[in-house]
Q: What sequence folds into this?
């Protein structure tokens, strides 16, 4: 049998987007076969293009979030540029925007306005704090939302809260926008109607804080920051090895502790010692427990430590840096790396984590140059060469 097509083949998405939240959402759609038309500013485009030059001269954020899209550069403050975007939207299935609060409404590109004009359209508004409420107009950069959502309060060491090392609020909003579009497409398939989809970064990240949040509101005590340790399990931490590595292990129950004591620590008597025999006792004596584990592992190199822990049936992992992740043997064995085109040549990229066996592989298209597809797409919505030349001449299109 021939392979199944990608599930979003034939779906067209128009996005007025910037930074991470909306671009990462629409990249998921592009990977699954959708045509994604990215509307950018004429003066530099999506500002994530200028974050850095780490990807052989391109910005790493932009490369990550924007493969497989077609770039159209238009000035939306000019009525002609805005009219061109509306013509593109008229033929689209999905519209996504994450402009600053109020900007989409002023342009008539908010979900309510667009869905009233195009009943089959799915229109997604991604915001920092939602369309209403006292925070609606606040700036909502990722780190600010991490603070407002309480993520920073549970991340770090007992002495120092820290932000997550990835844009967690942006990613959370992106993934809920992605899944919201998929749900709305299913509903449209049964009802024939599209409709608005609203996602806020605060509400998305608050959902991700579910465990510590429920621990606090139902138990009354916020979980403590414990670095790499676990607040209520011991031993559960990263320990140095003789070769300068670090190995994290997690003992989930007292049976595992007895195996660890006998097969890795070489101290089987600790399995029944009242000071260590139960998890509650080990947590109460965490410093002594960690000292015993650390003493046993520091004379082993990381490979040997992991081998002994695996043999004893103890959950463990190597603490890897990002270079080590790029060379991870599991990713290599599962052939997860591909190359995507870009204005500076081929770039390595991971296949998306959604795998659909029996179907076409994810479409990992090129990273577009700013305005690379402007002329072709304007011509596709009926503009003449003379009209397009006038827009370019007047600085409305690039």
A:
């Amino acid at each position: 049998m021939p392979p199944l097509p990608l599930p979003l083949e034939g779906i067209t998405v128009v996005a007025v987007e910037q930074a991470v939240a909306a671009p990462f959402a629409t990249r998921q759609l592009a990977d699954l076969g959708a045509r994604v038309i990215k509307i950018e500013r004429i003066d530099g485009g999506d500002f994530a293009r200028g974050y850095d030059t780490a990807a052989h001269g391109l910005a790493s954020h932009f490369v990550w979030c924007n493969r497989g899209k077609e770039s159209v550069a238009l000035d939306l403050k000019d009525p002609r540029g805005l009219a061109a975007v509306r013509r593109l939207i008229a033929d689209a299935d999905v519209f996504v925007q994450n402009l600053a609060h109020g900007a989409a409404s002023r342009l008539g590109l908010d979900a309510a306005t667009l869905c009233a004009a195009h009943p089959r359209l799915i229109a997604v508004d991604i915001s920092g704090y939602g369309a209403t409420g006292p925070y609606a107009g606040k700036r909502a950069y990722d780190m600010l939302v991490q603070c407002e959502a309480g993520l920073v309060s549970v991340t770090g060491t007992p002495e120092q809260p820290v932000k997550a090392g990835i844009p967690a609020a942006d990613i959370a909003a992106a993934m809920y926008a992605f899944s919201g579009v998929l749900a709305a497409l299913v509903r449209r398939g049964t009802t024939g109607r599209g409709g608005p989809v609203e996602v806020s970064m605060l509400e998305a990240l608050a959902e991700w804080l579910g465990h510590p949040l429920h621990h606090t509101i139902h138990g009354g005590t916020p979980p403590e920051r414990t670095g790499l340790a676990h607040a209520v399990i011991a031993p559960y931490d990263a320990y140095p090895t003789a070769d300068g590595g670090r190995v994290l292990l997690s003992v989930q129950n007292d049976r595992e502790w007895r195996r660890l004591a006998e097969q890795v620590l070489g101290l089987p008597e600790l399995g029944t010692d009242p000071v260590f025999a139960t998890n509650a006792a080990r947590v109460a004596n965490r410093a002594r427990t960690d000292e015993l584990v650390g003493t046993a592992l520091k004379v082993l190199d990381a490979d040997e430590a992991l081998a002994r822990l695996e043999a004893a049936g103890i959950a463990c992992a190597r603490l890897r840096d990002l270079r080590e992740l790029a060379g991870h043997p599991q990713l290599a064995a599962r052939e997860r790396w591909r190359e995507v085109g870009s204005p500076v040549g081929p770039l390595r990229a991971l296949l998306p984590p959604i795998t659909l066996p029996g179907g076409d592989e994810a479409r990992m298209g090129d990273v577009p140059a700013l305005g690379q597809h402007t002329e072709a797409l304007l011509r596709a919505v009926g503009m003449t060469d003379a009209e397009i030349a006038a827009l370019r001449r007047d600085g409305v299109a690039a």
